[in-house]
Specification:
About 70% of the residues lie in helices and about 5% in strands. It has about 140 residues and is mostly helical. It folds into two domains: about 55 residues, no CATH class; about 60 residues, no CATH class. A two-stranded antiparallel ribbon has the order 1-2. Helix 2 packs antiparallel against helix 3, helix 2 runs parallel beside helix 4 and helix 4 runs antiparallel to helix 5. The longest helix is centred in the middle third of the chain and has 18 residues. It starts with 17 loop residues before the first helix and ends with a strand.
């Protein structure tokens, strides 16, 4: 049975500023105390708030917490969401190998639970990471770095 989420902890998620992160940290604290099944989603929302605020190291750490939580409780959906976002974060930071790997892991998990749109989005990120991971030589041919 899904327990209702108190209204005061739903409003700030993903705001992209400190208010969003504060709200998400409060949600995590409450969900942990209640052993609530939405803890994984709150961990991802906190990471996204950090990402949108430009706090990349905090975002990566929060995504890693979400992945570890999802693995521990066997929540493939949260794991896929977190992996997909880590892939995106790695892509924007120029870590193309990590971006491709994380995105492809997300593709497999998303397909496994029928999220074809999510799988396509992650596959696009993996493809972009693979393309950006190549560099053009003066002759115009591609080579790996």
């Amino acid at each position: 049975m899904v327990r209702p989420v108190p209204r005061r902890i739903r409003g700030g998620r993903c705001a992209g500023d400190e208010r969003g992160a504060v709200s998400d940290r409060e949600a995590i604290r409450i969900f942990q105390a209640l052993h609530h099944e939405r803890l994984g989603r709150a961990l991802v929302y906190l990471a996204i708030a950090y990402l949108r605020a430009g706090s990349h190291e905090e975002a990566r750490s929060a995504f890693q917490n979400a992945i570890e939580y999802a693995e521990r409780v066997g929540d493939d959906r949260i794991q896929a969401l977190a992996l997909s976002n880590v892939g995106y974060l790695s892509l924007i930071l120029g870590d193309y190998q990590d971006a491709e790997q994380m995105s492809l892991e997300a593709v497999d998990l998303k397909r496994g639970h029928g999220n074809e749109i999510g799988a396509i989005e992650a596959l696009c990120n993996a493809g972009l990471a693979a393309l950006l991971g190549l560099r053009l030589t003066p002759a115009g041919s591609c080579s790996t770095p």
